[in-house]
């Protein structure tokens, strides 16, 4: 048994998992799991740089996480950074800050490596289940990018494309510095066009339509599940491995895209940091389900973070 700490720093959020990993049994015993919305990718699609205020929000979360890692006595720590820090010109500022705070250098991984971690984290515990046909298509809808992975026990094909909920929101839904509330039809159409083009790109290397089970990861997907179940608050246990039909996803997406900021913020399971970007994230999910013909999505709370933990164990 090895006590490990994994940090996943994405475009919208930074997350920590401290767990005891037993490679012999394939069990990951969670000790602490937390998430903070820091919006590290604020403006990166437009400027190509990490904003100073975004870096400071991220470093503040890192200081909190450093205390948690120390408190639990993790033997090994791995910090993985994804889309926003891959794209930024000044990512060295980010790297130095994390190293000073946590004592480990963030690994700015490729999209393909990100996809492998996501697949491992999402599917390791599905081994032996007879109700979910293989191969799986694991889809990780992040803030800056979306990863597509097809595989059985191992990855067969993977691709990362630049369609995430933050990137699509900032690119198409922001006018005069504010998110459109609600967006106009042409703005929604522009997102849809980007997503369809990205799906064309993904299909060049990943056989999306061969998958028998769609597994959806990350905050946009889990939030759609929470809304679909009409949860009175965000409940990971009820969200994990829930199954949401394509028609239900379509109805929720249409509501999110015609709702106001206040209406979305009033949803009890909605994290405040997702209010402005959830519409774009849900639209990405819906487009994937329509492209692949998936009748439902199996929602997983275990994702890249769990994959990172296994890699360090």
Q: Which stretches are poorly predicted, pLDDT < 50 over at least 5 residues?
A: none
Mean pLDDT: 91
Shape: globular
Strand content: 15-25%
Number of helices: 13
Helical fraction equals 40-55%
Order of helices and strands: EEEHHEHHEHEEEHEEHEHHEHHHEH
Calculate the terminal CA-CA distance, rounded to whole Å. Answer: 9 Å
Task: Tell me what the structure shows.
With 313 residues, the chain is an alpha/beta fold. The chain is 44% helix and 23% strand. The protein contains 13 helices and 13 strands. It has a six-stranded mixed sheet, sandwiched between helices. A five-stranded mixed sheet has the order 3-2-1-4-5, with helices on both faces. Strand 9 (174-175) and strand 10 (178-179) form a beta hairpin. The longest helix is centred in the first third of the chain and has 21 residues, at 52-72. The protein starts with a strand and ends with a helix. The mean pLDDT is 91.
What does the secondary structure layout of this molecule look like, with pairings?
Elements: E1 2-9, E2 13-22, E3 27-37, H1 44-47, H2 52-72, E4 76-81, H3 83-87, H4 91-102, E5 107-108, H5 111-123, E6 136-141, E7 146-151, E8 155-161, H6 165-172, E9 174-175, E10 178-179, H7 185-203, E11 213-217, H8 219-228, H9 236-239, E12 243-245, H10 246-258, H11 261-265, H12 278-292, E13 296-300, H13 304-312
Parallel strand pairs: 1-4, 4-5, 6-11, 11-13
Antiparallel strand pairs: 1-2, 2-3, 6-7, 7-8, 9-10, 12-13
